Amino acid sequence: VKRQVDGFISTYYKGLLTCDDETCKHTTRSLNLRLIGDAERGTVCPEYPRCNGRLVRKYSEADLYRQLTYFCHVLDTVRCIDKVDNTIRPQVERELARVRPMVETAASTVQRIQNRCAFGWVQMMELIII
Asked: Where does the record place the Zinc finger DNA-directed DNA polymerase family B alpha domain (predicted)?
C-alpha cells in the first residue's frame, strides 16, 4: 500500500500538464509563458497557432487527496464489519481477525500520509468575513 501511495504522490509531483483539446493532447512539464488574449500565464498550449486549447494538470491535488481517501475507505475494517448482515457477522469477524493487524497497519500508514496533506484542512478564518 505504501508503494502504491508513493507512486500516486510521485505522479502528482511530476507536474504533468496536458492540453484539454481532444485533437491535440500535448503533454509537457514546462509552462508556456506566452500571453494570448485573456489567458493566464502558463495556460496556453505550446502548439498555439494550430491548437486553441489550455494546459491543465493531468493529476491534481484533488485527485491525490481522493486517492488517499479511497485507500482509507477501503482499508477501514470497522466499516466493513458494520456493513455485514448480522447473521454472518461472527464468521466475518473471525476471518478478519487474522488479517486485521496487517490491514490496520496499512490503514494507519495511509492515514498518516493523508493527515500531512494540507488539501484536507480548512482555514476557518478564510471562510468567515469579519
From this structure: 1-127
Q: Residue 93 in contact with residue 81, Cβ under 8 Å?
A: yes
Please enumerate in sequence order all residues whose Cβ is within 8 A of that of 33, keeping only pairs 6 or more positions apart, or say none. Answer: 41, 42
Question: What residue ranges do the domains of the chain occupy?
Answer: 1-13+60-115, 17-58
Interval 69-123: pLDDT, tens:
999 999 998 888 888 888 888 888 888 888 899 999 999 999 998 888 776 666 6
CA distances from 13 to 7, 46, 57 (A): 10, 21, 11
C-alpha cell at 123: 482555514
- Give the Å distances, CA to CA, from 77 to 3, 26, 100: 21, 42, 7
Burial class (CB in 10 A: 0-12, 13-18, 19+), 47: middle
User: What's the predicted TM-score (pTM) here?
Assistant: 0.74
Q: Which amino acid is at 127?
A: L
Q: How many CB atoms lie within 10 A of CB 14?
A: 11
